[in-house]
């Protein structure tokens, strides 16, 4: 038995090409573009129910390696269609499934108005990710074995000075991260800032943001990001830029 797995929704006047499309999630059939409403297509594949429903799905969700392979397969298909320049693509969440293609299509038709609003919002734009981390500039606090003896008062004063320097550095890096979000948001059509650090993050970023950038502003955005990276470096922070991606953070069609 099989279920219908959905990768994304595509707005296109003609059938989106599935030629050379990636295999998709493990165990799935070939991705197919199915017309749902005029100019709106769903990209779907058949998946075995023993792997993607019930105990099989429960087992997959606790196997991080397997979830990672599924996520990579899902993303590869979404990006394949997003790269077709005449399309607007709404990426769907991992494990979006229905018992049949008919039920999947019915659900999409029921949300047609919300989907159209989302398509209009993200049309002609791409997502870029920006993270800002504090640079590793911790002042030394140990005393060399051959260092001359110092008084207790001098030692405490040195410790306080080190703490003050570290605090000033943290404030400068945090201020730089705030400026990054403000300045890049001015170029983007929309911006999203994550405020909850991932549970596995050893060093939470000072900024974890996604920007919806019109394609014609890509070069301007990249140049601005480079300028901000240099400013961050001077302030004791590091900026990482990723993209372009499909509009994952801006394509909510619920």
Question: How would you explain this protein's 3D organization?
Answer:
- It is built from seven helices and nine strands; from the N terminus they run E-E-E-H-H-H-E-E-H-H-E-H-E-E-H-E.
- The longest helix has 34 residues.
- The chain folds into two domains: 121 residues, no CATH class; 121 residues, 2-Layer Sandwich (Alpha-Beta Plaits), CATH 3.30.70.
- Strands 1, 2, 3, 4 and 5 form a five-stranded antiparallel beta sheet that branches.
- Helix 6 packs antiparallel against helix 7.
Summarize the structure.
The protein has 254 residues and is α+β, with helices and mostly antiparallel strands. It is built from seven helices and nine strands, in the order βββαααββααβαββαβ. The chain has two domains: 2-122, no CATH class; 125-245, Alpha-Beta Plaits, CATH 3.30.70.
Main attributes?
single chain, 254 residues, Alpha-Beta Plaits, 2 domains, 9 strands, globular
Order of helices and strands: EEEHHHEEHHEHEEHE
* Euclidean distance between termini CA atoms: 28 Å
Tally of strands:
9
The secondary structure category is alpha+beta
The major sheet is characterized as: 5 strands, antiparallel
Categorize the overall geometry. globular
Low-confidence stretches: 138-143
Q: Give me the number of helical elements.
A: 7
Helix content: 40-55%
Mean pLDDT, to the nearest integer, reads 85
Radius of gyration: 24 Å
DSSP strand content = 15-25%
